[in-house]
Design a protein that fits this description.
Layout: H1 3-11, E1 14-20, H2 24-38, E2 43-49, H3 56-66, E3 71-75, H4 82-92, E4 97-100, H5 112-120, E5 126-130, H6 138-155, E6 167-170, H7 171-176, H8 187-193, E7 199-203, H9 218-237, H10 241-272, H11 284-311
Parallel strand pairs: 1-2, 1-4, 2-3, 5-7
Antiparallel strand pairs: 4-6, 5-6
Helix pairs in contact: 2-3, 6-9, 10-11
Length: 332
């Protein structure tokens, strides 16, 4: 990459990343809307076609041909999901501020400049949109409220709408995080875990769906709940799994061992005093204690193996450095 290309990247104000699936009817209108809002600003629009079955890619090709200096198109061979599309969009983005939005016209481009100001002027690392007034059916809004409540409780990040597609990021944020699986719902948590803790939100307009139909389904809500459990664990224990599995296993083992000794001690006490005592094998407490000891040992060994595996991961020693001053000295 030559110096001129580097300078062009540094001067680029905005990257608009738009993941989409079967949104051919709305793309041209969306691009025109973005152009009207941004006018003479320096920006790029990155469309990521997540294996659409309609004419979305043909429309993207036409948009690239009509505005080759601003439009980038990326097409997946099949449907990989929104997280994969955002991941590729983040890799391609060069703007100082990266804005994500959906391609169905429910996210308003009129909000882009306000989000950009909160990043550039107010110093936020990430600003999430909050669709305070939604134009969705109850079958979608009620699960969303429950999901947001659970996510706030697990993450400690006080956002009202984690899953809003309209978000703005400092470029350093999108280059530092890794979005996989269905983790696009939890990008604020990923950013916080990477060291970008200045996270805010802004109320944004929510448009009624103009074309097509919603891709939301109950399975997405269930997947989101399972992913929340995963990321909650990973954010706390990914670098120290022994602290979770080891502590849980040791606690179960010692409590169960204590119960086992109590049962055995009671049996000996009865025998010593010539009192009738049940056979230990007839007591349900004996089997509970035995199972608890075995499970505790298994949890402990799981933590040990997870710790050994994580220590061989090169990313374990990668940390987000905020600043560095002075020259390092090499010692012979």
């Amino acid at each position: 990459m030559n110096q001129r290309t580097n300078e062009a990247m540094e001067s680029l104000e905005l990257s608009i990343v738009i993941p989409l699936y079967n949104e051919s009817e709305s793309l041209t209108e969306l691009k025109q809307w973005i152009d009207r809002v941004l006018l003479d600003r320096s920006y790029e629009v990155i469309f990521i076609d997540d294996g659409s079955k309609d004419d979305s890619w043909r429309v993207i090709e036409e948009l690239v041909d009509s505005d080759p200096n601003r439009v980038i198109g990326i097409r997946f061979a099949r449907n990989y999901g929104k997280s994969a599309a955002l991941s590729e969009g983040f890799k391609a983005a060069n703007g100082r501020v990266v804005v994500t939005m959906d391609g169905d016209l429910q996210d308003s481009p009129d909000e882009i400049l306000g989000l950009q100001r909160k990043i550039m002027e107010d110093g936020y690392d990430l600003v999430s949109g909050w669709k305070k007034k939604r134009h969705d059916p109850l079958s979608k809004t009620i699960p969303t409220k429950l999901y947001n409540l659970a996510t706030r409780w697990v993450s400690g990040i006080h956002l009202h709408d984690f899953n809003c597609g309209l978000k703005a990021y400092r470029r350093e944020v999108v280059k530092a995080i890794e979005v996989q699986g269905e983790m696009h719902r939890y990008i604020p948590i990923l950013a916080k875990d990477a060291g970008f803790s200045k996270i805010g939100e802004q109320v944004v307009a929510h448009q009624s769906r103009k074309y097509g139909s919603s891709k939301f389904g109950f399975e997405r809500f269930m997947n989101g709940f399972l992913d929340l459990m995963t990321i909650g664990f990973m954010s706390r224990f990914s670098r120290k799994p022994m602290h979770f599995f080891g502590a849980l296993g040791a606690t179960m083992f010692f409590l169960s061992s204590f119960g086992f000794l109590m049962i055995g001690g009671q049996k000996l006490w009865f025998l010593y005093h010539g009192m009738p005592a049940k056979n230990i094998a007839e007591l349900s407490e004996f089997y509970l204690s035995l199972v608890g000891m075995v499970m505790g040992l298994q949890f402990f060994l799981t933590g040990f193996l997870a710790e050994m595996t994580s220590r061989n991961d090169a990313r374990r020693s990668q940390y987000q450095i905020d600043k560095r001053i002075g020259r390092s000295r090499q010692v012979d």
